[in-house]
Description:
The chain has 249 residues and is α/β, with parallel strands linked by helices. The chain is 34% helix and 8% strand. β1, α2 (45-51) and β2 form a beta-alpha-beta unit. The chain starts with a helix and ends in a 32-residue tail after the last helix.
Amino acid sequence: KDRFFFSLLMATAAAAASSSSSYLDTRPTDGALSVQHAEMTEIPPIFGDRWGTSVTRLDLSHNKIQQVSNLERFALLKNLVLDNNLLVSNQNWPQIPTLETLWVNNNNISDIKEFLDAIVPAFPNLSFLSLLKNPACPNPLIGADEEEYKRYRLYVLYRLPNLNFLDAAPVEEDELQEAKRRGAFCLVAKPAEIRAGVSAAAAELGGRMGPSEADLDRTPQSSCHYGVCHYYYVGRQSEGNRYIKNSNL
Length: 249
């Protein structure tokens, strides 16, 4: 019985090793390298060492990649597909001037500004970008507000004016012109960013924004003054002079 379970364990380990080595042995076809459903948590450096100077299309969809390490080895990359992974907003994207298409659909990208801050300098010739089914992309197809999605598109196009296609729709000329006019103001501030802005403003004002806690806890003190006022009516046109006697003057 023990021998049977040992044999089963060895067979399972061998199958896992075979599966792991099988995707590492994948070869590109006509400049395209596709490795899907391989349970990868990162881009294996061996891919770049072997094929980095010849691959122009890389598809690593349906894996478990969180960070895009070792991507700099693909210096001639034009199309990159990373759909259905675990990518987050904060990425160290390498500079690849040849990249034209980037698909990162269905990941965990939640902060569009943080994402674009790295994308803009890394891919200056990007013309196709798709972020569908990410928290940072409020697409109406998943029930989001159309006005919110419009603001999202205007902000992305403001940051990436060379895009020809964004998500599921081409970029129109009038949309691009509107993005140039007001795209910078279409980014919706999050509560954390609002709190950070308030803290920064408080620091500029010496740390005080409104009354302090001591001021709010202090018991209010008020004072009243009592006295007698005499009103004198001056001028011939004053109606009040009719009622003033000489003894009151």
